[in-house]
Write a structure and sequence with these properties.
This protein is mainly α. The protein contains 6 helices and 2 strands, in the order ααββαααα. Helices cover 70% and strands 2% of the residues. Strands 1-2 form a two-stranded antiparallel ribbon.
Length: 215
């Protein structure tokens, strides 16, 4: 074989390699490795569910006192309040995650689903707490008073949730539905980390008016 033949072969090889390199650059490297698509349904294993149950467990062992004596009714009321809250929030989070179209939902609609879900979590657990307490003989005005105290104390937390949701959906760092929902779940988990403290402060500020109720 003559030198010219070798030169031709080498030229073809170099041309082929160059073509492959250009193709890889244009495809963003997808030929080498296809990026795994993350599904929002995977977030059913998110730590927010652990945070909820952990908060519920911490509240369950809290003991409240009235005039230095153990107040069983107040302690049970605090736990039942937390239990209803955890059940409601868990239900609505799973409702969001199980939405079959959630991965491809347009951003504005996804934001509406999140904010509506957060609102429904709140309204549903309030109804559940009211129904439970009224059925146990607690006067309606006292039920409203306890709920008012808790809502007043948690006002800043709830407000911060709304601000953070606005920020998450405006941020270019959260560029997929998965990353947006993940950020929201992280935020809600933080809220449950604070819940035992908020419950303790709320119920410690109650007087002993519930102590003699057959709860």
């Amino acid at each position: 074989m003559q030198i010219s033949d070798y030169s031709g072969t080498i030229g073809i090889a170099i041309g082929s390699i160059s073509g492959i390199i250009i193709a890889l650059i244009n495809s963003g490297g997808k030929v080498l490795k296809k990026k795994e698509e993350k599904k929002i349904a995977y977030l059913k294993n998110h730590d927010v569910f652990n945070a909820m149950r952990r908060a519920e467990g911490e509240v369950k062992i809290m003991k409240f006192y009235t005039y230095k004596k153990y107040d069983e009714v107040k302690s049970k009321m605090c736990y039942d309040f937390t239990r209803h809250k955890v059940d409601s929030v868990s239900f609505h989070i799973l409702k969001i995650l199980n939405n079959p179209k959630i991965d491809t939902t347009p951003t504005d609609k996804l934001k509406t689903i999140i904010t509506r879900g957060q609102s429904e979590m709140h309204s549903d657990y309030i109804v559940a707490v009211k129904t439970d307490w009224l059925s146990r003989g607690i006067p309606a005005k006292d039920v409203e008073h306890v709920l008012y105290l808790f809502e007043k104390f948690r006002y800043d937390v709830i407000n911060s949730f709304e601000y953070r949701i606005e920020s998450i959906f405006a941020s270019t760092y959260h560029d997929t539905n998965f990353s947006k929902v993940l950020a929201v779940l992280n935020m809600w988990a933080m809220g449950f980390d604070l819940l035992p403290r908020d419950m303790q402060i709320t119920f410690e500020n109650l007087n002993g008016k519930f102590k003699d109720i057959d709860y």
